[in-house]
Amino acid sequence: MTTSTVCFSIKSILYIFGVWPDTSCLALRRLFWTVLLTVTLILQYTYVALHFHTDSLTDLMDTVSTCLAYNLLFIKLIIFWINQRKFHNILTRIAADWKECANDPFSMQVTASMASLSHRVSNTIIGIHMAAVVTYSLGAFLSNSGDETFNASTIPVRVFIINMEYPFDSSSSPVYELVVIMQFIQLVLNACAIDVINALIMTLVLHVSGQIDILQEWLTNIFSKDSIHGMTGTTIKNLIGKHQKIILFAEDVENLYCYIALMQFIAITLIICSIGFVIVSSLDSPDASTMLVKTLMFYIVMNLEAFTFCFAGEYLSSKSQNIANAAYGSLWYNVHVNKSQIIIFLILRSQKRLTITIGKVADLSLERFASIMKASASYISVLLAMS
Known about the structure:
Elements: H1 8-16, H2 26-50, H3 57-82, H4 84-100, H5 105-147, E1 149-150, E2 156-157, H6 175-222, H7 233-281, H8 288-329, H9 337-350, E3 357-358, E4 362-363, H10 366-386
Antiparallel strand pairs: 1-2, 3-4
Helix pairs in contact: 1-6, 2-3, 3-7, 4-7, 5-6, 5-8, 6-7, 6-8, 7-8, 7-9, 7-10, 8-9, 8-10
């Protein structure tokens, strides 16, 4: 039976990037990734600035999409580093939930099943993103083998996995091979960090949804005809306490992810627009198959990333409404008025949905995902008209 909500792959990557609590050499890890990502972004934006008027709009949008993806990752890491205490509180609440359900077979079964589901979801997200890294790198190599040219110095002009402007000659061997290897390693690690942050929100939402299922079962059993006469004040207190723990856990997740969702909502729209433009504009070009190998999986992953956040918010909202439905459907009206009043307050509180917001402005939902797709399609049509 699964005995941990957060899977090993998530723990490992968060440990590498200095996010997991009690990580050794925490300051050095954060300093390393700060310097590495800062240098990478400077080299990328320098390339964009120097090739703004020389590269085609398709190549420029391809470079811009990777710049935005790296920017988004850096912002997510900074937010996690700043909110380290909130993340620690979330993990503490998860550990407390596991300890609480140790003596209840049903609670343990629900918690373990949700943990198992979250492990499968997390590993699937990581696997899909790793496939995107491989296809993106493969597309760069195919483009390199097909379009290799020579300049006046007989040095081959080679294509890198990620376009950067280096302060040295990076086209000659073995410098080119070393740079490509380092780019690939960095791309894999950065993709892992992006995957883990996306998978973590699904893990947390699935855990709290399991606790909601446990609360629903308690409401059904406590107010059943067989148990209604044996109900005590302690039983009602446990119900209210469980509900309050669920609310506090959801609020911690909201506080941790609301500004990440805001940056995600802004950046992912531009990234999907850029990659979509690259795909559409390259369909008529001679190297269409190479460009599709490079960008199609990347486009799918970016859409999946937006869908993951929006689905997590929608799922949490719909599950929280089930608490009020379960409480209202129980036999609460047959108990003493002093006890039934407390359940009425629980029903009233449950009508306020638990949700994850976009920077405290709007709720994450499938409707927001549809708006992202519509906005991206509109921007693609504008770029096609400009090209």
